[in-house]
Amino acid sequence: MKNYKWLFWLVMVTPGFAQAALAKSQYEKQDPPRELTEEQAKVAANNYQKYCALCHGDNREGHKNDHAPSLRSKSLFESGVPHSILRPMSYGRHGTAMGGYLDEVGGPMTLDETWDLTYWLFWQSGAQRVKLSENPVHGDVPKGAKIYQQYCTTCHGENGEGITAPALFNPSFLAHNKDEFIRYAIEQGRDGTPMLPFAETLSEEDIDNVTAFIRSKASAAKITKVALQAIPTPDQYVINPEGENAKFELDQGKYVSSKDLHAAMQANKRMVLIDTRVTSVWQRAHLAGSVPFPYYSDIESRVGDMPKDVLIVGYCSCPRAAAEYVMEKFNDAGYNNTAVLYEGIFGWMNLGYPVVRAEGLEVIDEELEGH
Length: 371
Ligand code: HEC
Ligand code: HEC
What we know:
Elements: H1 2-25, H2 38-56, H3 74-80, H4 83-91, H5 111-125, H6 141-151, H7 153-156, H8 171-176, H9 179-188, H10 204-215, E1 224-225, E2 238-239, E3 255-256, H11 258-266, E4 271-275, H12 279-284, E5 285-286, E6 291-292, H13 299-302, E7 312-315, H14 321-332, E8 338-341, H15 344-350, E9 356-357, E10 362-363
Parallel strand pairs: 3-8, 4-6, 4-7, 7-8
Antiparallel strand pairs: 1-10, 2-4, 5-9
């Protein structure tokens, strides 16, 4: 009986494997990027834990918070190094929980650190790079739209907004990635994740068609940056210092709704609002009066800057992971008058409440060379 079962699975699984392996072998291999020195690798590993593990997981497995993708899938590192890793890491994917980490846009990492972390992730993955064409993928867009509706919407959403998977019609996603990178992901899937290799279900032509359909969503996709604003100083932390103290009925003892928070802001209540996301995204848009207090900052040494006699409300976009993490640190330090914005900043905006947006959008037109 045992042997019979084994045979059954072998037969079930082999054709799929054979096909995927065949498709992969069509790709020419590419030399690996530079290796890191011991010191660079140590810094990169630390940076990963400090900045990325919150959402991508302690072991790069992904999907810890807000459906952040796996950062150890071989197929990603075969096709994505350096640009498809470096660009989202540096500039973020606007409109998702993935912010930019490069200092130039207000993030905490230097250019060298972003390159080293890209290569560190590559070496950790054990992948071998393949050579992908830079040329556009041609296909029949209306046919691709049908394939998309049939096979992709359950996870990626009807409008490519991402449900349990990345937002495929997102302008930054489309600006950062070449057609062949997208095609490769569809064909090979992302090993170790729910993204299956569609080489097993779709013809090459239909993979081209759906790739062309996704690309057709990129109208004016450009990588942009904004003029950096001054970060508030401690004497500016309290909103409405002369007002009455804000006080909320907190759901589960910690959550404030967007509706209640907005009403308190309208009523000029006294409070502190902290933005716990990577600071580059505070630079692009934030709640009026909020102070950047990113989850990776040295929280223990910074809490002392905060007044103790006022409610401190934290928010993020993931939609609560970073804010809860930071508010727990506050609680540990003896600050118990705290709250977390339940819907996060995207939920807040979806409900039509206002944010302060940066001015001076500038297109970054650089070609990132090997480094
Ligand atoms: C607050 C949560 C969060 C943090 C922290 C975070 N990410 Fe992400 N990341 C995401 C999400 C969500 C996505 C997918 C967004 C989308 O496209 O819908 C993503 C996407 C990515 C991608 C694109 C992967 C792919 O499959 O194309 C890379 C690369 C990446 N992140 C690297 C990093 C690195 C490196 C760090 C740390 C420096 C980091 N991220 C920190 C949430 C996060
Ligand atoms: C069962 C859910 C599911 C279905 C169905 C699905 N995907 Fe995915 N897809 C995912 C997940 C989850 C990821 C992120 C994987 C990871 O963690 O790296 C992903 C990743 C991708 C990526 C890479 C995105 C990036 O940021 O690098 C592309 C492109 C993609 N999918 C296209 C498609 C297309 C096209 C279809 C339909 C033919 C499809 N997917 C169907 C779940 C799904």
